[in-house]
Specification:
Blueprint: E1 2-3, H1 37-47, H2 49-60, E2 70-74, H3 79-87, E3 90-95, H4 99-106, H5 108-113, E4 133-134, E5 143-144, H6 160-172, E6 177-180, H7 188-197, E7 201-203, H8 218-221, H9 234-239, E8 246-250, H10 259-271, E9 275-279, H11 291-294, H12 296-304
Parallel strand pairs: 1-7, 2-3, 3-6, 6-7, 8-9
Antiparallel strand pairs: 4-5
Length: about 300
């Protein structure tokens, strides 16, 4: 196991001008695409290899850009490793979640061998089954079934996400190296066990601290990791508030909730009696066009009365 600190490359932003979008082949309406994560994941592993290989070959045939000499693939983008192998390029897997999460998903197949998964019916959700301790995952003592990824909670082994996450975790072990967004002091035991299984493990987390090593510039500020168009109009209001006086609520790009859950959050924020900045995506409700979203302004005004 290795631990390292990343230093920003002098031309680290050069590649942004060479970015190339391509379609995954998932036939979902754009505004609802994030609501069908299983279809997106399944489409990614089935259709992305060809376009990505074509892109790398095209870049390496061009005299206008540097050659691709290393591919850093997301931990669930196994097609990157396949392309790298075919083209003789070094490939590294980047696992953004915890080491414990990764180790758990590495053992999805063992859950099947031990007859734990799939569950017979939905009763496992409330009959105490998930409280069952499992002490056989290396470096993860005293954990329970409910402490492992929720993707194990299936009654059918053909479940897309169970198969996808388990197989992609196994694919990571075929790479030259694995980078993890964690650090030794946080997950020492599981990292030690993981290093016995795979020698080229590098912990570089927490990634949020790497921002300290990136100089502020207009180029850096123009690059965003968000999949959504940013709306900066709230910043003028935020700048007028006192320090440490605003509650910030953001559910990320994929989290979904019901109409009732949205209402409960609204009342909870209102009852906090603090100013709040609440990010609500237009596709966040499970019930498309739910009354709470369509009447969001009225809901907030009622809660604040």
């Amino acid at each position: 196991m290795g631990s390292t600190q990343l230093e920003p490359a002098k031309n680290s932003m050069q590649s942004t001008s060479n970015s190339r979008p391509y379609r995954t082949g998932c036939h979902l309406q754009d505004e609802y695409a994030t609501q069908d994560v299983p279809s997106l994941c399944d489409s990614t592993r089935k259709t992305c290899l060809g376009p990505f290989k074509e892109l790398v070959i095209k870049l390496n045939s061009s005299s206008q850009v540097p050659r691709v000499t290393c591919i850093v693939s997301d931990g669930v983008m196994g097609f990157g490793r396949e392309v790298a192998t075919e083209l003789g390029i070094v490939e590294v897997q980047f696992w953004t979640a915890s080491a414990c999460g990764f180790m758990g998903e590495l053992h999805f197949s063992e859950l099947v061998k031990r007859g734990i998964v799939p569950f017979k019916d939905e009763s496992f959700m409330h009959d105490g089954t998930l409280d069952q301790p499992i002490n056989w995952i290396p470096g993860m003592k005293n954990i329970r079934l409910k402490d492992i990824s929720t993707y194990i909670r299936v009654t059918n082994l053909k479940d897309i996400m169970f198969d996808f996450k388990g197989s992609e975790a196994q694919n990571c072990m075929k790479s030259s190296a694995i980078i993890l967004n964690t650090f030794d002091e946080l997950e020492h035991e599981v990292l030690e066990e993981m290093s016995n299984m795979f020698h080229n493990i590098y912990t570089i987390g927490p990634l949020s601290l790497l921002g300290r090593h990136v100089s502020e510039s207009k180029l850096i500020e123009s690059v965003s990791s968000s999949l959504w168009k940013e709306d900066a109009k709230c910043l003028e209001w935020l700048d007028k508030q006192k320090p440490n006086s605003v509650v910030y609520v953001n559910y990320g790009s994929l989290t979904m909730m019901t109409d009732n859950h949205l209402k409960e959050f609204a009342w909870g924020l209102a009852n906090s009696r603090h100013h709040f900045l609440w990010i609500v995506r237009p596709d966040m409700l499970l019930d498309i066009g739910g009354s709470s979203y369509n009447n969001f302004d009225r809901l907030i005004n009622e809660a604040l009365q």
